[in-house]
Design a protein that fits this description.
The protein has 8 helices and 4 strands, in the order ααββαββααααα. It is mostly helical. Helix 2 packs across helix 4 and helix 2 runs parallel beside helix 5. The protein is globular and about 45 Å long.
Amino acid sequence: MRHPFVFKADKAVESILYIVQNVDQPTFHRISKMMYFADKLHLEKYGRFICGDNYVAMKHGPVPSSTYDLLKIVRDETLKDNLTHRAFTVQDKFLVKPLRTANLDYFSESDLECLDNTIKKYGHLSFNLLTDLSHDKAWQAADENDCIDIEQIVATLVNTGNLLDYLRDPCPG
C-alpha cells in the first residue's frame, strides 16, 4: 500500500530547522533519524506522518526522501528556491546550520510532542547507534535505495491492525 499522506515541503523545512535547533551535530543523518523516529511515534499515536514524507531504505537507515532532497538542494546549490535558501545552509557536506528559527505555527501540538520526545530520547546518540536503532524490520524488509512500504513501518508499531484499517479507510461509511 502506498502511504496516504501528502508531502508538505514547507513543513519539512520547518522540521529541519526545529531539529537543527535542538540537537548537537545536526547532520543529514541525525536529521533523517529524528524525522523517522518522530514520524513512527506520530503515526502510532495519531495516524499520520508529520510532514507526509516517504522513507527510503538507505545504507545507514531510513531517509525521508523529499526532505533529503531539500537538504541536497541547499548543499549542492543546484537550485535557489525561496523555500530553503533563507532557512539553512550546509557546511562540510552534511552539517546543517540554521539561518533563522523554526516557525512553530506549522506544527500541531502532537507534531511538537513527537519531535520533542524523539529529540530527547535519540538526539544525543552516536551515528552508529542511530543507524543500528533505525535498522528495524521495516528497513530490513526493503531493498537498499527502495521505498519502505507503509505497511512495513506500521508492522513495527503496537496497534498494527487498527492502524492499517484506519490508513486504508480513514473515513469509513
